[in-house]
């Protein structure tokens, strides 16, 4: 196991590993235990009682956090004609078709999210081998394949985050920065928490929310008591 720095060790001593905290207290502890010199990201990690190998227990989607993430996403839109103009007016950073496909094939990745109109997906699909492993492929489930490009771009700019369960049943989502007011982090946390509750697959058996923890980029994890939301 990697040796932890002195600051991390001191910060970790403030957290009782055996205890699950109410969300307000957990957020306060995350701020206290942040050791980074920069404005660190606050992330929530969920361990869910699902079997992601089964199609009926896949969890994937997107939600707009009420207070954003503190990061402005650079949006690339694949669209033509009127839809391209709509994307530009909505604030997309890059808009085009074949020219950007060629740039990506040559190794250009100066963007964070791709939106594509459905008629462009035949072309965008050719980039599957490079976009797929980076999690950048547009997907209807996350609202990034749509003819409503104005809505898609504006939501991403407003603080839309994607979530997807990994092979181990975990989901990691950023909910803001350490500099955010506690109440804004709590509100963002509550939004993603409630979104995942609604996304519970009917086929999932046993405890659904097995473990919930929040942490800053370089800080220790702080367990959140999900029963404080009336959840078992």
TrEMBL record:
Q: How does it assemble?
A: Part of the 50S ribosomal subunit.
Q: Which GO terms describe its biological process?
A: regulation of translation; translation
The task this protein performs is described as: Binds directly to 23S rRNA. The L1 stalk is quite mobile in the ribosome, and is involved in E site tRNA release. Protein L1 is also a translational repressor protein, it controls the translation of the L11 operon by binding to its mRNA.
Q: Which organism is it from?
A: Metabacillus idriensis
Protein name as catalogued: Large ribosomal subunit protein uL1
Q: Where are the transmembrane segments?
A: none
Source domain of life: Bacteria
- Keyword set includes Iron: no
Q: What are this entry's molecular-function GO terms?
A: rRNA binding; structural constituent of ribosome; tRNA binding
UniProt similarity note: Belongs to the universal ribosomal protein uL1 family.
Q: What is the lineage of its organism?
A: Bacteria, Bacillati, Bacillota, Bacilli, Bacillales
Give the record's keywords alphabetically: Repressor, Ribonucleoprotein, Ribosomal protein, RNA-binding, rRNA-binding, Translation regulation, tRNA-binding
A cellular component term (GO) from this record? large ribosomal subunit
One Pfam family of this chain: Ribosomal_L1
Q: Do you know which InterPro entries this protein is assigned to? A: Ribosom_uL1_bac-type (IPR005878), Ribosomal_uL1 (IPR002143), Ribosomal_uL1-like (IPR023674), Ribosomal_uL1/biogenesis (IPR028364), Ribosomal_uL1_3-a/b-sand (IPR016095), Ribosomal_uL1_CS (IPR023673)
Q: Which Gene3D superfamilies match?
A: 3.30.190.20, 3.40.50.790
Signal sequence region: none
**tRNA-binding among the record's keywords?**
yes
